[in-house]
Design a protein that fits this description.
192 residues; mainly alpha; 11 helices
């Protein structure tokens, strides 16, 4: 317990809600040391490290949590986000893929796989993943936008234009969607 009589794990959550990242991190570290078999304390420490901008430490804690409980799709998604922030795109892609395997009905995991495939220069893979995401959530404007980008990367400007238009219709205030649609339309007009 801390000086206020709070248990380490719940105390960490309270400190986090109060905006005291350092105290939250300390509480989660204490909870993880007292109960090392409790994966959720390691994951909470990873989140606290991430909030404090200590990405390497967050990765260590998150990997420890996943070694204890490897069935948590959202933790793999968190790992994918952390790896992407660090520029470790292949590792991020693997973690996002694992999240999608663990929870195949979560469109956002498939969308993240598609975005990472596109960043890795694999637009063909991205197209399949983004289409799967859209089949689960037809209102996912981000998936439609990235699907349009992937088609554009392969020179399929007609489909790129369709997907960019779809993204813009789903989220009309997103400026980048309008710009991407204009790019696709201009590319369609160019002589081949």
């Amino acid at each position: 317990a801390d000086r206020h009589g709070r248990a380490p794990g719940p105390g960490g959550q309270l400190h986090r809600r109060e905006g005291n990242a350092a105290a939250a991190l300390h509480q989660f570290q204490l909870a993880a040391s007292l109960e090392p078999h409790q994966a959720h304390y390691r994951q909470a420490a990873a989140s606290a490290y991430e909030e404090a901008g200590q990405v390497e430490e967050a990765l260590v804690e998150l990997r420890a949590a996943l070694s204890i409980d490897p069935g948590q799709a959202r933790w793999y998604q968190q790992l994918a986000d952390l790896c992407q922030k660090m520029g470790r795109l292949e590792e991020a892609r693997g973690a996002a893929q694992r999240a999608a395997e663990l929870d195949p009905q979560q469109a956002s995991y498939l969308r993240h796989c598609g975005i990472l495939s596109q960043l890795l220069g694999r637009p063909g893979d991205a197209i399949g993943e983004l289409k799967s995401a859209l089949s689960l959530d037809p209102q996912d404007h981000q998936a439609a936008y990235h699907l349009g980008q992937a088609h554009g990367a392969l020179g399929d400007w007609e489909e790129a234009q369709r997907q960019q238009r779809r993204a813009l219709e789903l989220y009309p205030t997103e400026t980048i969607y309008g710009l991407s649609l204009a790019q696709a339309l201009i590319s369609l007009e160019r002589p081949r």
